[in-house]
Amino acid sequence: MFKSVRLNAEQQFAATQKKDMKIRDEKEKAQQEEAEHISKLRVLRLAKEAAEKKAAKIAAAEKLTAKNNKATRLAQAH
Fold first, then answer.
1. Using CB atoms within 10 A of its CB, is residue 60 exposed (0-12), middle (13-18) or buried (19+)?
2. pLDDT at position 78
3. What is the pTM of this model?
4. Residues 35, 36, 42, 46, CA torsion sign
5. CA distance linking residue 23 with residue 74, whole number of Å
6. CA 61 from chain center: how many Å?
7. What is the pLDDT of residue 69?
8. Within its chain, how far is the Cα of 16 from the centroid?
């Protein structure tokens, strides 16, 4: 009888350990997916910021060119 009680306890312990490992693996997988999602969002944000910075430089250059052209036309008129 003692042997069967011990065997039953060992089986329950093994089942509990297996459940714990499964839950731990699921948590790790969820954390990894969240980290990947955050990483993708960060990449998109950085790409957007770079594009906006480039667009701002182009707009500033165009504004400067327009200003220089206006100044040239005024100088030629006089």
1. exposed
2. 62
3. 0.61
4. positive
5. 76
6. 32
7. 78
8. 35
Structure tokens at 11: 């089986």
Maximum CA extent, the chain = 115
pLDDT tens string for the chain (78 positions)?
568 999 999 999 999 999 999 999 999 999 999 999 999 999 999 999 999 999 999 999 999 888 877 767 766 766
Long-range contacts of 14-21 (CB under 8 A, 24+ apart): none
- DSSP of the chain: -HHHHHHHHHHHHHHHHHHHHHHHHHHHHHHHHHHHHHHHHHHHHHHHHHHHHHHHHHHHHHHHHHHHHHHHHHHHH-
